[in-house]
Amino acid sequence: MRLVFVLVLLVPAIAFADEWSHTTSFESANAASIRVVEPEGYQVTINGSTDNAPAVFRVPNADNYVLMSVVAPSGAQYERKVEVKAYRQTVIRVRHVASAPAPKQDKPARRASYIGVVANTTHLCRGNDRRDIRVEFVLGADTVKVVEVGVRSRVDAELPGGEYRIRRFHRTSTGWEFAATESLNISKDAWIYQWGCGK
């Protein structure tokens, strides 16, 4: 299971990496040198000497390998050891294909929100129906807002539009007791949820 997880993480990095390669050929010369033909305008550094391609770099006249560093105008870099031969000019052509930019992630559209009221009018009731309430506004799988409203009170609330499930709880001597779940469509300002005598 761990191996599969690692592979999944590596795929995006491979898919969006720059592609670099180079070809090498040798031509007769009076002494060893390196000629970088392309890509034109790229910065090349060999043996501490830097120039923009196309460029020729002098190196000791002996069979050897030297480090070549190439920097693209975008800042992308490529490093490889290249072969040098006595009395030969090493001709190098570098190929660079920039990665495709990652697709832009569109921001999810923000849902409009609306202001309304949660009211508790149980002060108009008789007997034991007068009680504080707690209202949970559930949209999809998320509880968006929780409002507690005392007897003879109202609370302003702002909520994103949508079809809500409203879970109502009543206060008891031991805490909050679930009472019921109702529906409320919020699509404009001045919406209202009111709990009174038996609703």
How many discrete structural domains? Answer: 2
Percent of residues in beta strands: over 45%
Please tell me the overall pLDDT. Answer: 86
Number of helical stretches of at least 4 residues? 1
Whole-angstrom Rg: 36 Å
**Mind summarizing the main beta sheet?**
4 strands, mixed
Classified in CATH, the superfamily of the largest domain is Immunoglobulins
Low-confidence regions:
1-15
CATH architecture of the largest domain, by name, is: Sandwich
Order of helices and strands: HEEEEEEEEEEEEEEE
Features:
7% helix; disordered N terminus; 199 residues; four-stranded antiparallel sheet; Immunoglobulin-like; 57% strand; four-stranded mixed sheet; 15 strands; 1 helix; mainly beta; rod-shaped
Structure description:
The chain is mostly beta strands and 199 residues long. The chain folds into 2 domains: 17-97; 113-195, Immunoglobulin-like. Helix content is 7%, strand content 57%. The protein contains 1 helix and 15 strands, in the order αβββββββββββββββ. It has one helix spanning 2-15, and strands at residues 19-28, 33-38, 43-46, 49-52, 55-58, 64-71, 77-84, 88-97, 113-120, 133-139, 142-149, 153-160, 162-172, 175-186, 191-195. The protein has a 4-stranded mixed beta sheet, with no helix packed on it. Strands 4-3-6-7 form a 4-stranded antiparallel beta sheet, with no helix packed on it. The two termini are 54 Å apart. Mean pLDDT is 86; it is low at 1-15.
What topology does this entry show?
Elements: H1 2-15, E1 19-28, E2 33-38, E3 43-46, E4 49-52, E5 55-58, E6 64-71, E7 77-84, E8 88-97, E9 113-120, E10 133-139, E11 142-149, E12 153-160, E13 162-172, E14 175-186, E15 191-195
Parallel strand pairs: 2-8, 9-15
Antiparallel strand pairs: 1-8, 2-5, 3-4, 3-6, 6-7, 9-12, 10-11, 10-13, 13-14
